[in-house]
Every structure is written in C-alpha cells, then in structure tokens.
Design brief:
Strand content of chain A: under 5%
Number of strands of chain D: 0
Shape of chain D: flat
Distance between the termini of chain A: 62 Å
Radius of gyration of chain D: 19 Å
Oligomer: heterotetramer
Number of strands of chain A: 2
Helix content of chain D: over 70%
Strand order of the largest sheet of chain A: 1-2
Largest sheet of chain A: 2 strands, antiparallel
Chains: A mainly alpha (about 140), B mainly alpha (about 180), C mainly alpha (about 150), D mainly alpha (about 110)
Strand content of chain D: under 5%
Structural class of chain A: mainly alpha
Largest interface: A-D, 60 and 53 residues
C-alpha cells in the first residue's frame, strides 16, 4: 500500500520532471532562434544544456526503478555534461571574441566595436576584427 | 623530493581507485572475475597513461577540493535553477527586453582548477557566460542588466575561494612556483 | 599558455575517465554494445582531446609517432595469429572453439573474441592516431589552411 | 510510456528549431553553437530512446555521444577559429592572417 503510493508519487514526480525538462529544452531552442545575436543566443543554448538536460535526466533517474547501475550511468552522463557543456560554450564564446565578433550591447542593442581588445600587444586587432566582420555580417 | 614522490603516488592510487569505482558502475558485473581483473588492469593502465602524459597533478585529481565541492554544487544547482527562469522568461516574453552587458570580474582563486571552476560556474548559470579568462580577469557577457550583477558573481567567486582554501595548505607555495612560470 | 586554461583543466580532469570508458567498451564487447573498433576510436579520441588542448608537439613528445606503427603491427598480428592458432589446433581460420574445446562455458569463444578484439582495438587506436598526426600535424606554413 | 513519447517529441522539435538556427547562421560561431545544442539534445534523445525501447545500453551510446560532441566542438573551433591545430594558436593564426592578406592573390 505504502509502496504503491510511493510508486505513484515517483511516477507523477517524473512526469513533472519530464514536462519541465521538455519545456526548458524547447525554451532553449526557441531562444537560440529568437535572440538577436550570437552572444545572446549562447545564453539560450545554456538553458538547454543545464536545466533542460538535467531535469530530463532526473526524470529518467526516477523512472529507473531503483536500478542502481542505470542511475549511476545517468549520473555519470549528467556529471559529464556538467563538466563539458560550459567548456564548449566558453570555447565558442572565446573563439568568437578572439575572432573579433562584436556583441550587441545596451538596451538599444547597438553594435559595439570592442571585440578584440584583449591582445593589442600580441597581434593585430584590425586584421582580426576585419576578418570577424567579414564572417559575421553576411546577413 | 620524497614529498613530491609521495604526492604523486598518492594521486596515482586515488586516481586508480576512482577509476575502478567508475569501472564497476559502468560495468555492473560484480561477479565476473575476468571483468574485474580487466577492470583493475584498465584502471592502472589509465592512471599510468595519465602520469605518462604529464597531467597527473592537482587539476586532474583534485583531492583537496573533494568534500567542499559537493556543498558548492548543491548551492550552484539552486543558482542554475533561478537564473534559468530569468532567461526562460526573456525567451517567452513577446517583447524581449534584453540589454546585454560586458563586465569584468576578478578571479582571486589561487589554483588553475579553482579559476576554471569559477569560470565554469559563471557559464553554467545561464544569463552569464565567461567569454575570456586572462590572468586574473574574467570577462563576462551578461544577458540583462539584472543578471550583470557584479556583487552576486563575486559572491560566487568567494564561495569558490572558500572551497579551495579548505584544501591543502601548500597551495601558497604552488602559487609562488606557478607565478614565475 | 593562459588562453585556454579552462579547456586544459577540464581535459586534465576528463582524460583518465575517457580512457577508462574506451577500455570499458573494449572489454564489454561481448556483453553490451561496443568492441574493438569503437574502443580504439574512443581511446584515440582521448589523446586527440589532449592534443587539442595541449598542442600536437606536446602530444608527439609523449606518444611519439614512431611507436604507432609497432602498435599497428602488433594489433594486426594479434588478430592474425589468433586466427592461425585456430588453424593449427585443428579448426578453421578464426575458429575460437578449438582454443578451449573442453569448456562448458564456451571459454574458447570468449578467449578468442577477447584476443581478436584487443588486436582490432590496438590497431584502430594507432591508425587513428597516425591519421590525426598526419592531418593535424601539418606545418601551418602550408598556405592552403583556409580552404 | 506516454511521457517518454512526449519528451521525445519535444526534444525532436527542439532539434529541428536548433537546426534552423544552424542553417540560418549567420556567422560560423552561430552554426557551431547550434551544432553543439543539437548534440546535447541528441544525448537526451538517445537516453529517451533507451528508456522507450527498454534497452538501457543506449546510455552507453549517449555517454559516447556526449564525449564526441565535446571533442567535435573543440576541434571545429580550433580548426576554423584558429585555422590550425598547432600549439601557439593565437600567434600562428595572426601570423597566418597577416601572411595571407598579402599572399591572398595566389590562393
């Protein structure tokens, strides 16, 4: 009796987790489509990578029926995602920044030209910035 | 020198044991002798290769961070949830009110892994992405003005520092060595 | 060396687990998905990740390209000799059953598969690394880098 | 069972949206980001498929896919962003760009 109630609780909890996870996954994808420039889209993709993925994985963990090996594997996937997804995002952002892609800043989303201010000493910012503009401004 | 060797050996042993645990979790066959033997062999081989590639240091086996980091992760999960809601609201609102900002914060962490943890935590909370980590400076792109909250981000940095400083006392010396290089 | 600190720290952290995952796929070939080929690729991918983070030169210093042909030959010979061993013991080429004919648990099959898969894994690993070295280790002075 | 199907459909829809971003671009980095997002969703899809078909071996593949997604992203960025796989990326890439500006005629 107790176990049954527990089971149905777990069932509904995982249902909720799946629903919320799906919502956040779609939110992330929609943000990826709607946001105005690369740097803002990055944040939207972060929504999918963190909360969306984690909620769906937690839902799967609840559905794993106490199978410890399954839970361990799901936790390993979650941990792996937690380590790699910010690094991927950071690397893309860093490459865009170094490559001279300028972010839209401020409330009016106006184009800035601050991009590669990090290495005046090391390389030629003009060349990089020109290259980035050429790549970024096709549309 | 002896101390150095002991620390290497300790890391080697801890890494091998951790890999063995991962093997058991992945494999799930606790009773097949051949697989257990292969597991021991594999864990030792991987640990040896890590040593051979020259990356068996405090970043690859962060012994010292271990107890504190779990509480930090719990806190981080809550933060991730909170900032996710803010970004999700921006996505679904018909008229987006974005005001992206670029801000700089200082990473006061001593070790590389501490700095990387801090930068990764910033990236993991949606709405702020660490674009660049150069020396002690982290350049952050934030989605809105509310999210570009320097004091909150620095608070996160202090938490990472605290996790880090509960670890070993010889970090200071390591920082001095690393500073010259 | 500072520019990619985050990447390097995470690669350091994940290097050993990726290798272990490769070996897990290798040795569980007869219980789950996987086998020698996939394992070789995963094992090589750990080193490729290392090379992406730390540079080709550093990787080649630790895993010299000159040893890779030996691995390749070793893998292939392991495969071939296992097959020939079956031939010598009175079966067909790659006939594992004769390796341990009296076993009730198909021990011969297990041993044969393990050896062959191990050979495949080693060969694929070294082949992948060789390909990667050839592709990625090109001198940047070769000027068609932006095709 | 129905929730797996629902979640699977949601993930597939998300993949389609992300693919639209990958096609629209406009910059290289947008495409890489979209590719990375598709990869993350594929991991979820693989896990869900495993549960849907009752074959948890899919989780191994999901783990593998997570690994490959990471490596692929880094490798693509390194190749296209810095134009080379060699160690001192920034120096070499700037040198390459400079060299290439005047050597562009023969290329």
């Amino acid at each position: 009796m107790m176990g049954e109630r527990m089971d149905s609780f777990i069932h509904y909890a995982s249902l909720f987790l799946f629903a919320a996870g799906s919502f956040f996954v779609i939110t992330g994808a929609l943000g990826l489509l709607r946001f105005p420039d690369f740097y803002t889209r990055m944040h939207a993709s972060g929504v999918t990578d963190t909360l969306g993925a984690d909620l769906i994985l937690w839902g799967m963990i609840l559905q794993a029926d106490g199978d410890w090996l399954l839970i361990a594997k799901l936790l390993i996937i979650m941990l792996f995602l937690m380590f790699t997804s910010p690094v991927s995002t950071h690397s893309i952002a860093h490459a865009a920044w170094v490559g001279g892609l300028n972010p839209l800043l401020g409330k009016d989303l106006k184009h800035s030209d601050i991009a590669p201010d990090r290495d005046e000493t090391k390389s030629a910012p003009e060349a990089q910035s020109a290259d980035g503009q050429h790549e970024g401004g096709t549309e | 020198m002896v101390k150095f060797l002991i620390s290497i050996a300790g890391r080697f042993i801890v890494l091998s044991l951790a890999l063995m645990v991962i093997w058991l979790l992945l494999s799930g066959y606790f009773d097949k002798t051949t697989l257990l033997v292969f597991g021991v062999f594999s864990a030792l081989l991987c640990a040896w290769l890590t040593l051979h590639m020259g990356i068996l240091d405090d970043d690859s086996v962060p012994l010292s961070v271990m107890p504190g980091i779990f509480f930090y992760w719990l806190w981080l999960f809550i933060e991730i949830g909170k900032s996710n809601f803010i970004v999700a609201m921006q996505v679904w609102s018909p008229k987006m009110s974005l005001s992206p900002q670029m801000i700089r914060v200082k990473a006061h962490q001593i070790s590389d892994s501490g700095k990387a943890t801090y930068a990764n935590s910033i990236t993991l909370t949606p709405g702020t992405v660490s674009v660049d980590l150069l020396g002690e400076d982290i350049l952050i792109h934030a989605l809105t003005e509310d999210l570009a909250d320097v004091s909150a981000i620095e608070d996160m940095g202090r938490k990472v520092c605290r996790v880090e400083s509960t670890m070993h006392p010889n970090l200071k010396t390591k920082a001095k060595e690393g500073g010259g290089a | 060396m500072m520019g990619h600190l985050i990447l390097r720290v995470v690669i350091k952290l994940l290097f050993a687990p990726i290798l272990l995952f490769g070996l897990y796929v290798q040795f569980h070939g007869d219980y789950g998905p996987g086998g020698g080929f996939q394992a070789g690729v995963i094992f090589a991918s750990a080193f490729i990740l290392f090379a992406l983070g730390f540079g080709i030169k550093e990787t080649q210093k630790r895993l010299p390209p000159t040893v890779l042909p030996f691995f390749m030959v070793f893998g292939l010979l392991l495969y071939a000799l296992t097959g020939v061993l079956g031939l010598f013991m009175g079966g067909n080429f790659l006939d594992y059953y004769v390796l341990a004919p009296d076993s009730h648990h198909n021990a011969g099959q297990h041993i044969g598969i393990l050896l062959v898969e191990f050979g495949v894994g080693v060969a694929v690993f070294s082949a992948m690394m060789t390909i990667f070295y050839f592709f990625a280790g090109r001198e940047p002075e070769i000027h068609d880098a932006d095709w | 069972m129905i929730m797996y199907v629902a979640a699977t459909i949601a993930v597939i829809v998300a993949i389609v949206i992300a693919l639209a971003r990958a096609i629209l671009g406009p910059s290289l980095y947008d495409r890489v980001l979209a590719g990375n997002a598709v990869g993350t969703k594929t991991i979820l899809l693989l896990g869900l498929m495993g549960f849907l078909t009752g074959r948890p071996e899919f989780l191994d593949i999901a783990l593998l896919y997570a690994l490959m997604n990471f490596i692929a992203t880094i490798a693509i960025l390194k190749f296209f962003g810095y134009r080379t796989m060699s160690p001192q990326m920034r120096d070499i890439s700037s040198r390459l760009r400079n060299g290439h500006n005047d050597g562009g005629a023969d290329g």
